[in-house]
User: Which sequence fits this backbone?
């Protein structure tokens, strides 16, 4: 392990020849790799607008093209400064691809960028419409743990059946949330195309944030049930 | 600048390769014995000089306390990590070892990177001999599943051996590169790499682009403690139990015999890859305990029996295989190619198991021992020349995390992220006038910090102020070698904060500097040692020739050896023998010269006689 200094662009002129770079990866005049501007945007990195319905194959193609240019392998013979720049650029590219490739992390990134979602936010209170089901589930889980201790086989089998059904139910709900999110993605993209105002955008983002919280809650439930079943 | 090479620093064997510019193909470089495989064995003798490879392997029997094998198992690991190994491997770990293990060889202590550096230096000398040119840069391969500390230890070993490590490449990725070059392949490739000490599985996607081919690793998994050694240990434990039952003999008291038995069983293992059965015949160390003097342990092993024994070991590889496929979101049937790497994939049961799982016959065209080194040479050439016709996109095998409240590990870079990869985290103070924030960096998949691998601890310095005011952004970056770098920045002042990182299981820069200085002393010692060996060899040759001449002269009076001359020669022989028993190569050289002087007249007379005999019956014109 070693320590490095973070390398930050001071202004958008080339560090080598002084020409204006226009925020490109490489200086248009001399071709040298440029420092990473702070807070640069993942979508813009791929030459994309902030649309949420992405063509996975197209994104992968652009990722490969940029990797070919920015990967540290290209800079092994270069000076230390350029090697560090390439490390910054290539790591940002990989981070960006990792985030944008997955629809959920993609929308989470967008909402965080717009200040609509705090990093690592997980609303742990149950969404009101799920309350009843969650109560019932917790009861079954308690019974299952109890049955495990008294090792009453018949009871266990019955509980397992109920919990299996509950797990399927939650997975079904998860798929429904995903489908709903997909729908809002489409609305978001259409709003961007139509040049919708801030209020309209904010409304869509609030909706997406709610769906993400709901999704995260259901996912945790399903994972818990899965875990308890595996241990039983 | 010197040459650039690719090195496979293996648990059991190590190899060095280069790219032949004429053919455009990688080739392994042979050592002095004509073999490309250099046993990863190091021996340090009483004088402190170091022997590596085949000669060191022979010393496993004669000087087991000065000789070490499988040192790769100790790289980047702490004393607590290796307790299991110590039950099986005769490592002599210094009880005083702190975080970094120190191994005792004779009366000296070495860290695992220093021992690995001896192997690297040996390989480097092979290549320098081969090129007639210096070698100063290398691509070194590591198991894909190596963690940060193990990678850093490997890089340190390179530096200690006087090599600039251009890149650490994952072994299965290197193998894929060699195969891809060998025969153009596209689509999804699974590389199953079962070596002597480690198991790796990598799932790759091979893509052709306008510029060239991209080898993108989608996922990797493995077990850094699973390999052919486990099979050897298993066979050994069976055999020792049987010997105890049949002869009442505990081989534990006979380290040399234990090594002999191991050799015999490894041979049997190799035979069982080709034959349906084999018979081990092992002469017991005689006369001890209730064992009859001259007793022999004879054991026929059939393929079926052998496979039943080793099946649990082979099955252990399937867990990582399934995880890697799940992470790549692919099914076994979706693989376009399956490639086998590592000596242990010669075992028919391994090949069958892989074939059944993927429903596809695996590739075994390239020598599974050499393929990793060949791939490393290809990558070395790309990095050396800057001429790129292919690009490797590798991944980090383990998630990077930091410890938070309650000892929970929060993952900030998930496993199988393409590297280089980074994550920024914001830290602040919890109480008023706090002057430092402690950060504990972890690697692993478990939820609690104590179950993950500790990579490093460090403290961020903050100016005193109210709680929660400080805003320090820390950037964690995993470079293209899979090694972590850390940088910090104060968001209020915009100032960079230097971060003093103490690796949990690694060597500090100062320690490496110290070792480098020491290793220069070693280089001199190595030179002396080599001179001594060469002088002794030369002495042996001239002694044999002299004995032969004296015997011949005694039987052939026409040579005319008078008693005074004979006495002079015998005195010179005795003086040379005495010098050879010592360690001064200059003295040996002087005594060789003396003996030459004493025998020169005799040699001339014998030469003339031989010539006369040979020329008898031939006319002068024919000469």
Assistant:
């Amino acid at each position: 392990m070693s320590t490095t200094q973070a390398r930050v662009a001071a202004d958008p002129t080339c560090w080598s020849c002084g020409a204006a770079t226009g925020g490109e990866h490489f200086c248009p005049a001399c071709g040298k790799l440029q420092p990473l501007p702070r807070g640069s945007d993942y979508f813009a990195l791929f030459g994309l607008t902030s649309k949420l319905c992405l063509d996975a194959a197209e994104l992968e193609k652009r990722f490969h093209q940029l990797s070919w240019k920015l990967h540290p392998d290209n800079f092994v013979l270069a000076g230390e400064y350029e090697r560090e720049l390439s490390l910054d650029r290539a790591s940002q590219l990989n981070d960006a691809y990792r985030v944008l490739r997955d629809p959920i992390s993609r929308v989470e990134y967008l909402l965080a960028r717009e200040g609509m979602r705090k990093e690592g936010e997980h609303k742990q209170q149950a969404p009101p419409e799920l309350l009843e089901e969650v109560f019932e589930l917790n009861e079954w889980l308690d019974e299952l743990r109890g049955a495990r201790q008294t090792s009453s086989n018949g009871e266990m089998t019955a509980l397992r059946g109920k919990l299996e059904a509950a797990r399927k139910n939650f997975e079904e709900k998860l798929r429904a949330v995903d489908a709903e999110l997909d729908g809002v993605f489409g609305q978001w993209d259409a709003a961007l195309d139509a040049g919708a105002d801030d209020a309209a955008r904010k409304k869509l983002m609030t909706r997406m944030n709610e769906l993400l919280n709901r999704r995260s809650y259901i996912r945790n439930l399903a994972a818990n049930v899965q875990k308890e079943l595996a241990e039983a | 600048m010197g040459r650039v090479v690719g090195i496979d620093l293996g648990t059991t064997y190590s190899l060095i390769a280069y790219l032949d510019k004429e053919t455009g193909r990688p080739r392994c470089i042979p050592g002095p014995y004509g073999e490309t495989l250099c046993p990863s064995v190091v021996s340090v003798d009483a004088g402190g000089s170091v022997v590596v490879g085949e000669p060191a392997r022979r010393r496993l029997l004669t000087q087991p306390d000065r000789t070490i094998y499988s040192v790769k198992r100790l790289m980047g690991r702490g004393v607590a990590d290796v307790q299991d190994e110590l039950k099986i491997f005769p490592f002599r770990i210094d009880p005083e070892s702190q975080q970094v293990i120190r191994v005792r060889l004779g009366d000296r202590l070495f860290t695992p990177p220093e021992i690995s550096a001896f192997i690297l230096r040996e390989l480097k000398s092979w290549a320098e001999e081969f090129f007639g040119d210096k070698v100063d840069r290398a691509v070194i391969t590591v198991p894909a599943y190596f963690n940060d500390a193990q990678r850093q230890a490997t890089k340190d070993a390179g530096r200690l051996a006087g090599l600039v490590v251009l890149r650490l490449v994952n072994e299965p990725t290197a193998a894929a590169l060699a195969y891809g070059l060998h025969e153009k392949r596209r689509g999804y490739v699974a590389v199953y790499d079962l070596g002597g000490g480690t198991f790796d599985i990598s799932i790759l996607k091979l893509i052709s682009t306008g510029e060239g081919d991209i080898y993108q690793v989608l996922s990797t998994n493995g077990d850094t403690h699973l390999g052919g050694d486990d099979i050897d240990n298993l066979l050994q434990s069976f055999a020792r139990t049987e010997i105890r039952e049949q002869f009442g003999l505990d081989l534990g008291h006979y380290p040399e015999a234990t090594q002999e038995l191991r050799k015999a069983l490894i041979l049997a293992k190799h035979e069982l890859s080709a034959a349906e059965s084999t018979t081990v015949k092992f002469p017991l160390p005689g006369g001890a305990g209730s064992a009859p003097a001259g007793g022999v342990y004879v054991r026929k092993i059939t393929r079926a029996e052998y496979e039943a024994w080793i099946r649990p070991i082979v099955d252990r590889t399937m867990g990582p295989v399934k995880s890697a496929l799940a992470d790549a979101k692919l099914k076994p049937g979706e693989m376009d190619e399956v490639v086998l790497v590592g000596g242990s994939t010669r075992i028919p049961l391994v090949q069958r198991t892989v074939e059944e799982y993927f429903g596809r016959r695996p590739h075994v065209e390239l020598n599974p021992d050499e393929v990793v080194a060949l791939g490393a040479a290809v990558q070395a050439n790309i990095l050396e020349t800057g001429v790129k016709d292919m690009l490797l996109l590798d991944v980090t095998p383990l998630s990077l995390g930091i410890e938070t409240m309650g000892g929970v590990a929060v993952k900030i870079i998930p496993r199988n992220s393409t590297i280089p990869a980074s994550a920024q985290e914001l830290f602040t103070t919890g109480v008023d006038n706090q002057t430092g924030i402690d950060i504990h960096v972890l690697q692993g998949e478990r939820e609690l910090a104590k179950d993950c691998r500790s990579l490093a601890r460090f403290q961020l310095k903050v100016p005193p102020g109210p709680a929660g005011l400080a805003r320090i952004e820390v950037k964690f970056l995993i470079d293209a070698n899979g090694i972590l770098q850390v940088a910090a920045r104060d968001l209020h002042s915009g100032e960079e904060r230097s971060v003093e990182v103490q690796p949990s299981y690694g060597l500090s820069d100062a320690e490496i500097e110290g070792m480098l200085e020491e290793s220069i002393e070693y280089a001199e010692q190595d030179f002396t040692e080599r001179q001594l060996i060469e002088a002794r060899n030369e002495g042996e040759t001239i002694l044999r020739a002299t004995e032969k001449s004296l015997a011949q002269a005694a039987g052939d009076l026409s040579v005319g050896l008078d008693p005074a001359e004979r006495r002079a020669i015998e005195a010179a022989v005795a003086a040379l023998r005495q010098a050879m028993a010592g360690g001064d190569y200059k003295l040996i050289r002087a005594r060789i010269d003396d003996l030459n002087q004493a025998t020169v007249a005799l040699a001339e007379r014998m030469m003339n006689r031989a010539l006369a005999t040979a020329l008898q019956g031939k006319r002068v014109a024919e000469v």
